[in-house]
Specification:
The chain is α+β, with helices and mostly antiparallel strands. The protein has a single domain, classed as Thiol Ester Dehydrase, Chain A, CATH 3.10.129. The protein contains 11 helices and 11 strands. It has a 9-stranded antiparallel β-sheet. A hairpin with a 5-residue loop joins strand 3 and strand 4. Helix 2 packs antiparallel against helix 7.
Length: about 400
C-alpha cells in the first residue's frame, strides 16, 4: 500500500473540500428495502428479532406493516474512501439519529456531506493524524428524512504506524496479544450457550413507568467472531467501500482509482483496501496484527442491543458510539448497558437515557456509547404508533 505523510499541501486541499456533497454512487450498496434485502441484512448483523422478518408479526405491531430494523440504512450506504491519499484510516465514532421507520418496499436515497476535519495532531500510534467529519442523510420515496448519521474517520501516517507496531511488539513490559485468541472447547461451548440464550424482548411492552435509573440491560454476545461473520455482514449489506466486484469489473475500478486496492503478497491478486476486515495481509499492511471488524458493523450491534431491550413498541431515537481498539477475528464481545436517566419531553415523549458498553474477553471496553430511546407509556400511544406511516 502507498505510504504518505501529512503535508501542508494536503491539508489545504482538504480544507477546500469542506461542505461538499460527495459522489457516492460507487459505494451505494442498496436502495430498496425488499423482503430479501431486510432478511439478508438482519442475518448479516446476527439479529434474530422476528419483528424484522415476520410480516404477520409486524402487521400486528404498532408499525402496522412489515418493517426493517433502524440500522438498515447502514446497509444502503455507510461510507466512502475520500481524500488523504497514502494515509491509513480507521472509522472511530458514529452518532446515529432515527426519525421514521423504513418499511418493506421503501426506496432509500442516501447523501453524504464532508464537513471538514480536525487536526493535524501528533499521535502515539502513527506520527500525525487528522479526523474527518461526515454526515449521511437517508430519505424515503416520500422525501421524508428517515435517518441521519454523523461519523468520523481518523487518518494516519501508515508507514509510521507499521514501524511503531513492530517496536510495540518488542516491548516486554506489555502482555503479549495472542491472535487468534486461544479458546478452549469448554469456553466456546459456554459462549455459544450464552449467545443462544439471549432473546429480544419482542411483543411484551417495556413501559416507561416500569424503568428505574440504575437498571441494567440484558447482554448481547457476539463471537467468537469468524471469517463467515464478516462475509455475512458484507453480503447482507455491510456496504464495502467501494462495492465488491470480481475480475475485470474490479480491475477496471482499481485502474481508475489506484488508492482503492493493493497487491496481495501471497495470492498475487488485487484486493480492495476494505479487505483489512477479512484478509490478514491487508490488515498487516495497515499496521494491524490481524483482521478486524467494521466500524459500522459494531454500530449495528449497539442498535441491536437497544432494539432487543425496548421491545417491538419502543423506538431508538439516538445512539452514539466510540470505537476504541480493534475487535479482531476470534474475539468475543459482550454488549450491555445501564439506565442513566428518564424524562418526559416537551412534546410528551417518554424517553430513557442509557450508557452502553462492548467488552472483549480481555476486559477492554471497545465501544463505549450512549443512547436515547422512547418507550410506551401506560397513559398514551407508543412511540412507534406516533411514527408509523398512516394508511
Amino acid at each position: 500500500m502507498p505510504e504518505a505523510v501529512i503535508t501542508d499541501e494536503m491539508v489545504e486541499s482538504m480544507k477546500a473540500r469542506a461542505g461538499v456533497n460527495l459522489r457516492i454512487d460507487h459505494s451505494v450498496n442498496n436502495e430498496e428495502a425488499t423482503r430479501i434485502a431486510v432478511t439478508k441484512f438482519t442475518g448479516g448483523i446476527g439479529d434474530v428479532n422476528t419483528l424484522w422478518t415476520d410480516a404477520e408479526q409486524a402487521q400486528r405491531s404498532d408499525y402496522g406493516a412489515p418493517v426493517a430494523p433502524p440500522s438498515f440504512v447502514i446497509g444502503c450506504f455507510s461510507g466512502i474512501q475520500f481524500g488523504w491519499p497514502g494515509l491509513g484510516a480507521f472509522h472511530n465514532a458514529t452518532q446515529a439519529h432515527f426519525y421514521k421507520p423504513v418499511y418493506w418496499g421503501d426506496t432509500i436515497t442516501a447523501t453524504c456531506r464532508y464537513d471538514g476535519f480536525t487536526g493535524p495532531r501528533p499521535s502515539k500510534f502513527a506520527g500525525q493524524m487528522v479526523t474527518d467529519h461526515f454526515v449521511n442523510s437517508y430519505r424515503n420515496q416520500h422525501d421524508e428524512l428517515v435517518a441521519e448519521i454523523n461519523w468520523q474517520v481518523v487518518n494516519f501516517e501508515r508507514g509510521s504506524a507499521k514501524s511503531r507496531s513492530k517496536e510495540a511488539g518488542k516491548d516486554s513490559s506489555k502482555p503479549e496479544l495472542v491472535l487468534p485468541h486461544p479458546w478452549q472447547e469448554d469456553e466456546i461451548v459456554a459462549i455459544e450457550r450464552q449467545v443462544l440464550a439471549e432473546k429480544p424482548r419482542g411483543t411484551a411492552p417495556r413501559f416507561w413507568e416500569d424503568v428505574t435509573v440504575g437498571e441494567t440491560m440484558q447482554t448481547l454476545t457476539k463471537g467468537p467472531i469468524g471469517l463467515t461473520d464478516e462475509v455475512a455482514f458484507i453480503a447482507g449489506g455491510g456496504t464495502p467501500i467501494p462495492r465488491l466486484k470480481a475480475h475485470a469489473a474490479a480491475l477496471a475500478d482499481y485502474q481508475a482509482h489506484p488508492a482503492w486496492s493493493f497487491r496481495d503478497p501471497v495470492m498475487g491478486s488485487s484486493e480492495p483496501i476494505y479487505a483489512v476486515h477479512y484478509n490478514k495481509a491487508a490488515a498487516n499492511a495497515m499496521g494491524v496484527a490481524f483482521q478486524y471488524d467494521v466500524g459500522f458493523q459494531r454500530q449495528c450491534w449497539q442498535t441491536q442491543l437497544l432494539t432487543n431491550w425496548i421491545g417491538d413498541n419502543g423506538w431508538v431515537a439516538d445512539c452514539s458510539s466510540e470505537y476504541r481498539g480493534f475487535v479482531y477475528l476470534s474475539d468475543v464481545i459482550t454488549l450491555g448497558g445501564e439506565v442513566t436517566g428518564k424524562e418526559i419531553t416537551s412534546d410528551g415523549e417518554h424517553v430513557v437515557h442509557l450508557t452502553t458498553f462492548a467488552t472483549n474477553q480481555r476486559g477492554a471496553n471497545v465501544m463505549p456509547g450512549t443512547a436515547t430511546v422512547a418507550l410506551p407509556s401506560a397513559e398514551g400511544v407508543s412511540p412507534v404508533a406516533r411514527r408509523a406511516r398512516k394508511a
